[in-house]
Amino acid sequence: MSDTPNLGFVRDEPIPPSPPPVQQAGAVKWVRENLFSNWINSILTILSIYFVAKIILASTPWMWNGVWTTSSLRECREVLQGTSGACWSVLTERWNQMLFGFQYPVEAYWRPTLAFVLLLVCIAPVLFQKLPRKMLIFSAIYPFLAFWLIWGGTLLTPVIVGLSLIAGYMAFVKTERLIGFATGLLSGVVAVALVLYLGSFVTAALSGFIALEPVASRDMGGFMLNLILGTVCVSLSIPLGIVLALGRQSNMPIIKGICVVFIEFIRGVPLITLLFVANVVLSYFFPPGTNLDLILRVIIMITLFSAAYIAEVIRGGLAALPRGQYEAADSLGLDYPQAMRLIILPQALKISIPGIVNVAVGLFKDTTLVSVISMFDLVGMIRGPISSSTAWTGIYWELYLFAILLFFVVCYGISQYSQWLERQLRTDHH
Amino acid sequence: MSSTTHTEASKFSLSMLINDTRYRSTTFQVIALIGLIFAMGYLVSNLLSNLADAGLNISWRFFGETAGYDINQMPIEYNNQMSHGRASMVGAVNTLIVAFLACVSATVLGVIAGVLRLSNNWVVSKLMAIYVEAFRNVPVLIWILIIFLVMSNVLPQPREFRGDAAASAMWFDMIAFTNRGVYVPRMIMGDLSWLVVATFVLSIAGVFAFRRYARNLLFNTGRLIPTLLPSIGIFIIPTVLVYFILGSPIGLESPELKGFNFKGGLHLRLSLIALWFALAIYTGAFIAENVRAGIQAISHGQTEAAAALGMRPGRIMSLIILPQALRVIVPPLISQYLNITKNSSLAIAVGYMDITGTLGGITLNQTGRAIECILVLMLFYLVISLSISAIMNVYNNAMKLKER
Amino acid sequence: MSEAQMKVSDEIAISIENMNKWYGTFHVLRDINLDVQRGERIVICGPSGSGKSTLIRCINALEEHQKGSITVDGTLLSSDVKNIDKVRSEVGMCFQHFNLFPHLTILENCTLAPIWVRKTPKKEAEETAMHFLEKVKIPEQADKYPGQLSGGQQQRVAIARSLCMKPRIMLFDEPTSALDPEMIKEVLDTMIELAEDGMTMLCVTHEMGFARQVANRVIFMDAGQIVEQNEPEEFFNNPQSDRTKLFLSQILGH
Description:
The structure holds three protein chains of three kinds.
Chain A: H1 26-35, H2 39-64, H3 73-80, H4 89-100, H5 110-127, H6 135-151, E1 153-154, H7 156-178, H8 181-205, E2 211-212, H9 222-248, H10 253-268, H11 271-281, H12 294-320, H13 323-331, H14 336-366, H15 378-388, H16 397-426
Antiparallel strand pairs in A: 1-2
Chain B: H1 16-19, H2 21-54, H3 84-117, H4 122-136, H5 140-154, E1 176-178, E2 181-184, E3 186-189, H6 193-221, H7 228-245, E4 250-253, E5 256-258, E6 261-263, E7 266-269, H8 270-297, H9 300-308, H10 313-343, H11 355-367, H12 370-399
Antiparallel strand pairs in B: 1-2, 2-7, 3-4, 5-6
Chain C: E1 12-23, E2 26-37, E3 41-45, H1 52-59, E4 67-72, E5 75-76, H2 81-90, E6 91-94, H3 106-116, H4 122-135, H5 151-163, E7 169-173, H6 181-196, E8 200-204, H7 208-214, E9 217-222, E10 225-230, H8 232-237, H9 242-252
Parallel strand pairs in C: 3-8, 3-9, 6-7, 7-8
Antiparallel strand pairs in C: 1-2, 1-4, 4-5, 9-10
């Protein structure tokens, strides 16, 4: 029929791309759309800008007019003559006490500083998979190096402990290959104990060998104490948390019961009660006559606290693994320890890292609670020696702003890393 | 082939304890249990010998002994001749009060901040982001201390309210913010005041009933009646009417400046206010993140489908997004309430006498009964935590999406 | 009958007698009696929920049975862990969702079990792995990760991984059900080659063309019981039971 339209069509040449129409007045348009799109938004915008402006106008002159060089609050006020200004001199005079505590020997400040810098080098390959794996060797050495730097004493002590762990590991591997997992574990523990026992004689004899001036635990304080507590407790609690998580999701009712009771108990009480235990009660549970340093007791309790939370995170990671992974491992004939070690835990831990990092940040903030049991961490230093010194009574904003800055930088940095990591894991080729 | 059935008992041998799957787990558990018993036994024996050396023992009688110390914030009747047990109860009530106040305000603050964070007003959303990040990344103890110090330094002293040319004035002549605390009017319940309270409670029920009626009306007849103004009316009018009809049975005792201090009214000490505000603002930041994550977790396809059906944004939010978002928001919200309760134990840092300050503080120091006090203290928090977790489980089970 | 279908010996590889299994009170496998000869290829089909996957998972003890007996290669499957381990190292399994280990390379996936279960030295394990990867025709992917491979390639790696343990029996649990249509053929070709080499195979699948070409026996299961079994031609052309007829009409219809 002649009046049906011709349906066939073939395009000869593709249409080249062309630029969009020019926007009229780009910036003004954006402001209008985003900030003043309706009357509620307009009111909110004006209120927010007013609020922010008020804060900035009040605080900036105060900060700018700061006095940096006096040696007491009274002198600050004399210099300022009644104008508003910050007395930053308290920071110039006391920054080292706030960072290191007031009893740490000044000539030894380089040691914890070096340990901190090396800490960053140590955890870099753990956090960022793209870095060369050889750096992990340094990460393994770091704990011993850091212990020696911070606490001092002969280099032999950390070396012996390190050797004992290596001996234990080798004994474990060899025996496990030949006999089985349980005997391997036993022989590993025996090897560690043996080397430690023999080594204790060596260190006692050679206590001056490549030694740094020993510093007692009770002399540590300031922000350094928060960092030490945070890193040590989180690192120690991860293996314990793994064991608790595996126990909690096992089929054996007694093991599961023990783990559930422990985890729910720890998560149900505030950290401060556990610190009270460390302070007053924990020494009752050790054999009569042992006298553990307060910082060690605190480390024990904070580690138990952190392990319970990390166990919950890892439990979530284990649950997120598809069931097929367990089945594939079983069908290949791997037994429980092998399946856990080679297949399940590597994957579960990788999924759990953002959660573990969150727990770590929370724990780091919670280390300030030791100030309540009279340990002189950063907050303890501010409330204690500095605020009660005659030169600086009554000053608070400058000190707390410094503390806020320190904590904010560390915590915000860690949580930004965690968010970056979560984005990485989500776009992973799974 | 061989016709051994599964249930035929093969001869039992000792190696089966490890190799046989039926016995294996029992063997491990028995070993673990024995290990645990030995460990506990070792710890307890150390404990007993240390206690004996120190001349102490475990006894609970101190709870009945006279406390001998004053508590500054007393919601229930207390004086220093009452027992330690009574003092602990005062502390417990204080804990519950500050936890409740902080939970409510943190929720309100967090929901507002979370929703505003998602607004397309750039200034507002960035401001909320700064609030959230600033408060989440600094320890709560520092916030508590700062707010306390700021308030005690910045707020006026009570005597500055004196005189005609007073430096500071009370709000509405009823509320005074001073550096010793906030003074608010106390409600005096006269005769028949319970009628007013009852009417108030009934009017809340009435609002719900009215809304259910309006919804049924819509479903049955298709008529949509306005609900907002009538709800407000039902909420307010009956209570006000009954109040005036009965001749204003509820009085207000306002605080008055007598001498150097305010007398009368309700005195909320600065430590309570500081703790409350700090906990509310700090936890509000976390709640804001939960709310934001909850709303963003609802796939955009839901909004699109609802819009394609012709629904307007308000209805989309209340009928589609919010019910689903609540399912994601409520569990972490409840664990934030748990955190508030546990963080309230930091009261000891500003001198607020909650249970940690009374039982775990003064009572412990005075009587020296560390183990007993700490045990009871932990038990208190444990009971609250487990109750809150149980509520959360009930909620989760009720809200679970039914799947095949 | 194809050449593959002729290579069956008289030796019994798997013997299942009066096997029953319950999930709680649900009777999922009822009175299963089955003898599989060495070199035999069996295809098990049936509607979903009929228990066919459960059946083959009982054979390598991924699931436990409560009644009856299963004997694999002369080893009775009891609750003795040693017996279970022995059976699992002789029986290989391929899953519907491949279940490769995503954090290991293809080569590591294949060498893991030989190294840790059979204690084979690493070099030898790698040579065996490359041999089987060549057999499934993807030796060049050895250093990639599972996430970087297509579905069909992953399933072939899964087959190679099981073969590296040198099993005498292979179980397949719906190996092609999760694959895009264009990848099914490559996996089926691999399985056909395996059959032609004389492997004893039990295969749960819906691929009836595969059954026709390779199987010695087709078993139809429904509601936990073996309803009918026969040689493929007889089974497809002359189904005896009504349930078989209904099932065949549903899957062969479209």
